[in-house]
């Protein structure tokens, strides 16, 4: 069990490593990380056996920070209202600087560290897909929606639509000429399209 001092040192290392990995990618040295964290290189290796271990821990932590709040399965509002609210929160998270930088860092290391993509997917997208799929399954059980594909595939379908121009351009570092009102209208139209396509027959 880590002492309070050890926990503090570990957090210093994670904070420093996350910032340096985000700025410079995997090429940053453990010496530089130790210097930025104000600890010895030996202390870094005491907490993280390899640079891969440290790198993956940083990515996983950032994904966890960017996760959506739980989607209540028993929310009494209409499904459209719940999904619109969820969709806007989801896209807002994707557009944050931290989420964009985490995504770019994972992509940048794809060739040298292909397993990192699995870490990114499992810690981020898969959690959101599973959460949304559970809600959609409840809506199907209640006769609101009816899917010709799995709830997980339907969740992925909606989430990919929700990225939209705003997220696509933000990930590429490009400006977007959409206003927030236009973007909200786009998000709502995605939800409406989704619900119309999967509306249960009455």
Fold and architecture overview:
With 202 residues, this protein is an all-alpha fold. Helices cover 71% and strands 0% of the residues. The chain has ten helices and no strands. It has helices at 4-24, 30-37, 41-47, 51-65, 79-94, 97-108, 115-123, 125-141, 151-171, 180-197. α5 crosses α10, α8 (125-141) packs across α9 (151-171) and α9 (151-171) packs antiparallel against α10 (180-197). It is elongated and about 65 Å long.
Please give a handful of descriptors for the protein shown.
single chain; 202 residues; mainly alpha; 10 helices; 71% helix; elongated
Distance between the termini: 58 Å
* Percentage of residues in DSSP E strands: under 5%
Report the average pLDDT across residues.
89
H-E order: HHHHHHHHHH
Shape: elongated
Please report the number of helical segments.
10
- Give me the secondary-structure category: mainly alpha
What is the gyration radius calculated from CA atoms?
A: 20 Å
Tally the beta strands.
0
Outline of the structure:
By secondary structure, this protein is mainly alpha-helical. The chain has ten helices and no strands.
Write the SSE topology.
Elements: H1 4-24, H2 30-37, H3 41-47, H4 51-65, H5 79-94, H6 97-108, H7 115-123, H8 125-141, H9 151-171, H10 180-197
Helix pairs in contact: 1-2, 1-4, 4-7, 5-9, 5-10, 8-9, 9-10
């Amino acid at each position: 069990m880590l002492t309070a001092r050890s926990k503090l040192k570990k957090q210093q290392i994670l904070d420093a490593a996350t910032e340096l990995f985000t700025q410079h990618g995997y090429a940053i040295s453990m010496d530089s990380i130790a210097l930025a964290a104000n600890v010895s290189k030996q202390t870094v290796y005491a907490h993280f056996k390899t640079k891969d271990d440290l790198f993956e821990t940083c990515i996983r932590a950032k994904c966890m920070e960017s996760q959506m709040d739980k989607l209540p399965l028993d929310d009494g509002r209409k499904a459209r209202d719940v999904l619109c609210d969820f969709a806007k929160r989801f896209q807002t998270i994707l557009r944050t600087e931290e989420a964009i930088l985490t995504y770019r860092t994972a992509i940048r290391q794809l060739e040298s560290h292909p397993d990192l993509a699995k870490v990114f997917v499992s810690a981020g997208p898969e959690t959101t897909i599973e959460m949304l799929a559970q809600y959609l399954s409840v809506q199907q059980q209640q006769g609101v929606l009816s899917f010709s594909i799995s709830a997980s595939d339907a969740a992925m379908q909606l989430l990919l639509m929700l990225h939209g121009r705003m997220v696509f351009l933000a990930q590429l570092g490009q400006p977007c000429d959409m206003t927030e009102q236009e973007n909200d209208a786009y998000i709502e139209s995605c939800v409406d399209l989704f619900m119309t396509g999967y509306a249960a027959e009455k």
